[in-house]
């Protein structure tokens, strides 16, 4: 299967290469032109070296017939050699600029793709593995194609011009040198296949190793790792993965070394053959010493140009499967939906007989659920761990599409993008943006005015904390990047709450909004939750029954199904699962 894919990629090689070259040209038209000019100068300078060499030999061996004297010939030779030698370093620096521009452009394509991938796709491990492989291998390929194409152009130019010189001396010399080409091209095709298969095999290992490196180096994990003294154990796992990577890499490097040695041997054999032919021609008196000297220089330079050409062809073959991988990745995500339209909520949101199964799972996480959240209502979801609360909330927020059943907004089925634009969710594991407090609140791209930011902060109970911050709303939060101010868990939670309130949508989903709040803060939040929400409807998920008992309606989930529904008093008098869980929890406080 994998090899078939690689083979298909080889068939598409010219198309992929042309597309990559176009990308590079678009990324930096001027830079591409400058790089091409350097390449052409390099190739023609090589020809200049041969011509100047011939003039120098002529001036040495037949001074009476020489076109130039020895000094001008030598100066010309020095100039051509200096030009030919200085192009390389200039090119290297030019490539740094071009490489950065191309990398930015390819990153844009990858980021466009990840941005339009829906949440289910994003959460699948296949997507994550492809993304990692793209990041590790494919991002640099369009640029590698360009350098290879430039090498190919320069190499071809050099080969053609130097071949023309050699044909003038002895036509046989050219096929002898070119004979090294065919095996070199075949070997580079082989190399390209082994490289792609190797990258495929390495990615899962690299992903696990990167994860361990994050655990071992990043700040959020530092305290727990130290408290559990788990660094040693994680390092052992890291070491095991290093060993696996080394074993795979060693095998691959041997492959590549073998291929490189065979290619070099082929070129060296051709070079030796051509030089021996020149000696034979001199011995037979068919060419003079000056011609032989120039031909020897041309043979040496031609073999160099042929190496450049073969390396370029090899580079193109090697890049093609990775380019195909990048194309497949970009094409794997459907085009972006139209931007969602924020809708007001006048009647309410309803999930009708909704079922949802995660890809690859046998059992549905949500199974035939009906819930309703009226405009301005506070509705709670409760249930044991894994009963489907968060999944249901993600369906309500338009992040997952139900497999069966419908999601209705004011009675109508509306596009998921509209639902996402009209619902705000604060997850249990909300993001702590290492940005200013203001940016943490105004993270959605709609901008209101300053008083809205202050109002959201005030409603979320952040006013006192904001006053104490050195730069108020413009204080940098978090300490991962800069020396920002770190907040307590509860303060971060209030920031997340402020973010939800600022977005000002008809429905807010709050998944464990009080998990990090102290008892007083939790009491304040729920005592006046409706005032805080300012008329917005809320879907509240919480294991704390003290928080959910104030809800207009409580749904009890069990195994992905709604097993009970009603107000706190109704559910208590029913003496079912809710009453049991509530009694268990309140008994702990007695
Ligand atoms: N991304 C996922 N891929 C596959 N299965 C998942 C995924 N997320 C959740 N599940 C499964 O779906 C079921 C419901 O999970 P969900 O997170 O909705 O439960 P929950 O009631 O919110 O749990 P908790 O109270 O622990 O937060 C669980 O069996 C869980 O293992």
Automatic annotation (TrEMBL):
GO cellular component, one term: plasma membrane
Keyword Membrane: yes
Presence of keyword RNA-binding: no
Keywords from the UniProt entry: ATP-binding, Membrane, Nucleotide-binding, Transmembrane, Transmembrane helix
SUPFAM superfamilies named in the record: ABC transporter transmembrane region (SSF90123), P-loop containing nucleoside triphosphate hydrolases (SSF52540)
Topology term for the membrane: Multi-pass membrane protein
SMART domains, alphabetized: AAA
Residue span(s) of domain ABC transporter: 349-584
Subcellular localization: Cell membrane
Residues that span the membrane, as ranges: 30-53, 65-87, 143-166, 172-191, 258-282
MF terms (GO), sorted A to Z: ABC-type oligopeptide transporter activity; ATP binding; ATP hydrolysis activity
ABC transmembrane type-1 domain ranges (all copies): 40-318
Protein name: ABC transporter ATP-binding protein
Species whose genome carries this gene: Prauserella flavalba
